[in-house]
Amino acid sequence: MRTLGFRALARLAGLLALAVGVAAASAQSYPDKPVKLIVPYAPGGFSDVLGRSLAQWLTQSLGQPVVVENKAGAATTLGTDTVAKSAADGYTLLLTTGALSINPHLFSKLPYSAERDFAPISRVAELPYVLVAHPALPAASFKDLLAYAKANPGKVNVGTPGNGTSPHLAMKLLEQAAGISMLAVHYKGNGPALNDLLGGQINLLFDGLQQPRQFIDTGRLKLLAVASLTRMPGLPDVPAISETFPGFVSSTWYQLLAPAGTPTPIIARLNAEVQKFVNDPATRDKLVAQGAIVGGSTPEQLAAFSKAETVRWGAVIVGAGIKLD
What we know:
Strand 5 (157-160), helix 6 and strand 6 (183-186) form a beta-alpha-beta unit. By secondary structure, this protein is of the alpha/beta class. Helix 2 packs across helix 9, helix 4 (99-106) packs parallel to helix 11 (299-320) and helix 6 (166-178) packs across helix 11 (299-320). The N and C termini lie far apart (55 Å). The chain has 3 domains: 1-27; 28-126 and 252-320, Bordetella uptake gene, domain 1 (D-Maltodextrin-Binding Protein, domain 2), CATH 3.40.190.150; 128-243, Periplasmic binding protein-like II (D-Maltodextrin-Binding Protein, domain 2). The protein has helices at 2-28, 46-62, 77-84, 99-106, 142-151, 166-178, 190-199, 213-217, 264-279, 281-288, 299-320, and strands at 35-39, 66-70, 92-97, 118-133, 157-160, 183-186, 204-208, 222-226, 251-259, 293-294. The protein is globular. Strands 1, 2, 3, 4, 5, 6, 7, 8, 9 and 10 form a 10-stranded mixed β-sheet that branches.
């Protein structure tokens, strides 16, 4: 029995060594065919712009086509599940947002595990929300808004792109931080909400700077605050909400992931390319012009940040009593 045990262990060690050798060889030749980059959002928004910019960069640096596939639907779960169930070989990647940390609190059943089914590669960018108001709202500043909302519970209407979306949670976070009550008006996307804000049907909107900026510049909307941790570059006179409520941050942040089990050398190669991408001056200028904060991370930093976001937004969602199924 003892001899057989040693033989079995030797055989197992040989198989493991072979598997490691195959994985290493595969990583060294990576990539030797096109790579698919799944973006779980519809074309046209910042997610699509960022995805195509990253895909173009990776195509040039990796020497193989990196093709964007927009796979929207079910609050990002369709595209996300596709990557979760793909081969762990680096040929199917996911560019997604903090929705991966939020959805487990909103849906009782997901077809994947956000914690177990993905290998972190790097953070890529962040699109902080700005708080914009219709000029008719009797609040010339963020502090005026807080005073008005406290004096008029439930009378301030805030447009959102849907129940449980990040802008909706930003509104709930503000309610909880300030001890105020506002009325959420849900739309199918921020575009229709912005249209109604321009028309005066609603009072407020959390959005990325890209869409409302032209209306802010022409005076059709007023910019009350930004939801980044510090004041945004280019908007030095606009206060950050965190100046009133320390630590207040709300944004759409973007991360690059691979299926769990993807070989470490492939993760390292992709991470190195993302760092070059986010530090390229032309890339930064292009994305910063759309209101983004560009910056990478190590896989370990991304994993820790994602875990912290899961805890943070879980508390907001539970406190607001939001559940989608």
